[in-house]
Write a structure and sequence with these properties.
By secondary structure, this protein is α+β, with helices and mostly antiparallel strands. Helix content is 38%, strand content 24%.
């Protein structure tokens, strides 16, 4: 019984830490950033769940947390409409990342195209990640 409680507590602790706000990610490999971008687009952006979004924001955005939380639902309604969505009509992600340096910080960008809900046409955007001084990757620009 104690072992089950311990495992449950560990799992809860891991899941709670997994989406700590303003934490970013350590692994900036191309494969991981592409997986994070796809996870964000499918499980956060499309399904109107802002937790991964807040996890990927840099600490400097903490002061805007309340404003961003309040704006999130309206942004989703405007982009996709009020019907619950589970998949995109169109979702494409380029294989090759664009890498550059800006003001001494490494930046990696993944171009994407998507269409869902009430959208009339395919929209082009990108997931852009920036390596900060704490050696963690954060959204530089969200799609």
């Amino acid at each position: 019984m104690k072992l089950i409680m311990l495992i449950s507590m560990m799992l809860f602790s891991l899941s709670a830490n997994a989406l700590e706000r303003f934490a970013g990610i350590e692994d900036g490999s191309d494969e991981n950033l592409k997986a994070i971008c796809q996870d964000y687009m499918v499980n956060s952006y499309l399904k109107n769940d802002p937790e991964l979004f807040f996890h990927l924001l840099p600490k400097s955005m903490k002061k805007l947390e309340t404003i961003l939380e309040n704006d999130w639902p309206q942004g989703h309604l405007k982009r996709f409409g009020s019907e619950p969505l589970f998949e995109y009509e169109v979702f494409e992600m380029e294989d090759k990342l664009i890498e550059k340096t800006y003001k001494g910080h490494e930046i990696k960008r993944i171009k994407i195209k998507y269409k869902a809900g009430i959208m009339n046409s395919v929209r082009g955007s990108s997931c852009s990640f920036k390596l900060y001084d704490d050696n963690r990757w954060y959204f530089q620009k969200k799609p």
